[in-house]
């Protein structure tokens, strides 16, 4: 809570110099608006950074790379958890005369935090956007059982047109908490299409040029630490092992076909690529066997410049009650 402690230190400083006769009362009147602006700014930055982590997502930007770490599915009631965090924030900052409110992407005041991260409070889907490319990172709802990263070249299925041209690389890492592969990728020919299977890999992967044709890497680690990664060859290209291999180093993001990777165990983990510009990650409890499909995901995009940012479909307003100075912006 940097804003709170910053405010206390500044006010203490003003009181000290007043008592010492260094500032006149009129000078203090000119200082107060500055203090109010600083207090609001620090509080806004502090809460906007924290509330994204509370939602289970960690977004970081390092030069021309954007890294998004997540957990699927949600291990708690996230709207309730976010709401309790906001109650804490309001109680904490009210002691320094600050008011904190949140609004949906369309400007609706949020009282039920099931609305957090949504363009409209009547929507189910949770979204944030990577701008100016207009890429969408989304779940069907706050249960987070499915993750989609969408960048279509034309508007479709409710998503805006997206410009993939600035993106030059894609890296995906997945750690499975309790799911184990039903074969050992380290052993030649041990994994067959009965355990790990690609569908239409050659349709989507292995491009040579064009917008959307980029290098990629994919690493999936099971609960025992076994690793399946692409590029990789895990057996001969015979009829029973061909679908296991991923021997191409590029992906055509905009390909019309959909390449699907499935890990077949008591828990089914599926990744989909292509389909006009979409990556999907999903874990399923097959036949309700009570298995744990929790996973941590790390998706990293490399851009050809550093001029990009995120927008979480929610605005935050911080207002200094005493001076009425306020700051309102989208949470990034």
Q: Estimate what percentage of residues fall within beta strands.
A: 25-35%
Task: Going across the biggest sheet, name each strand in turn.
Answer: 8-12-13-14-6-5-4-16
Give the strand tally: 18
Number of domains: 2
Helix/strand/pairing category: alpha+beta
Please compute the radius of gyration using only Cα atoms: 24 Å
Q: Helix content range of the residues, please?
A: 10-25%
Largest sheet at a glance? 8 strands, antiparallel
- How many H/I helices? 4
Task: Please outline what is shown here.
This protein has 332 residues and is of the alpha+beta class. The chain is built from 4 helices and 18 strands.
Describe this structure in words.
With 332 residues, the chain is an alpha+beta fold. It folds into 2 domains: 2-54; 58-75 and 118-311, no CATH class. Helix content is 21%, strand content 34%. The protein is built from 4 helices and 18 strands. The strands form 3 sheets. The chain has an 8-stranded antiparallel β-sheet with strand order 8-12-13-14-6-5-4-16. Strands 1, 2, 7, 9, 10, 11 and 15 form a 7-stranded mixed β-sheet that branches. Helix 1 packs antiparallel against helix 2 and helix 2 (25-54) packs antiparallel against helix 3. The longest helix has 30 residues, at 25-54. The chain is elongated and about 75 Å long. It starts with a helix and ends with a strand.
């Amino acid at each position: 809570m940097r804003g709170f402690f910053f405010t206390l230190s500044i006010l203490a400083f003003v009181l000290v110099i007043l008592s010492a006769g260094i500032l006149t009362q009129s000078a203090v009147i000119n200082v107060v608006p500055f203090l109010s602006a600083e207090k609001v700014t620090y509080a806004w930055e502090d809460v906007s950074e924290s509330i994204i982590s509370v939602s289970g997502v960690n977004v970081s930007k390092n030069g021309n790379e954007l890294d998004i770490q997540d957990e699927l599915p949600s291990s708690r009631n996230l709207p309730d958890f976010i709401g309790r965090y906001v109650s804490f924030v309001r109680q904490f900052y009210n002691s320094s005369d600050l008011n904190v409110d949140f609004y949906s992407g369309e400007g609706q005041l949020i009282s039920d935090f099931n609305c957090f991260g949504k363009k409209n409070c009547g929507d189910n889907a949770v979204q944030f956007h990577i701008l100016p490319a207009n890429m969408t990172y989304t779940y069907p709802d706050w249960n987070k059982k499915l993750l989609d990263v969408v960048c279509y070249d034309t508007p479709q299925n409710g998503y805006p047109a997206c410009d993939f041209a600035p993106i030059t690389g894609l890296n995906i890492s997945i750690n499975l908490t309790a799911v184990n592969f039903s074969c050992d990728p380290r052993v030649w020919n041990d994994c067959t299409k009965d355990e790990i299977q690609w569908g239409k890999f050659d349709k989507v992967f292995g491009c040579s040029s064009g917008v959307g044709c980029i290098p990629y890497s994919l690493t999936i680690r099971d609960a025992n630490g076994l690793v399946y990664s692409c590029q990789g060859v895990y057996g001969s290209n015979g009829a029973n092992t061909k679908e296991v291999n991923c021997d191409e180093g590029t992906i055509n993001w905009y390909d019309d076909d959909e390449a699907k990777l499935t890990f077949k165990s008591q828990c089914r983990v599926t990744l989909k690529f292509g389909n006009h510009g979409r990556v999907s990650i999903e874990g399923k409890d097959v036949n309700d066997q009570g298995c744990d499909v929790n996973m941590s995901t790390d998706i990293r995009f490399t851009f050809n410049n550093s001029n990009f940012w995120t927008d979480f479909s929610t605005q935050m307003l911080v207002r200094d009650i005493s001076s009425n100075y306020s700051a309102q912006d989208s949470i990034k």
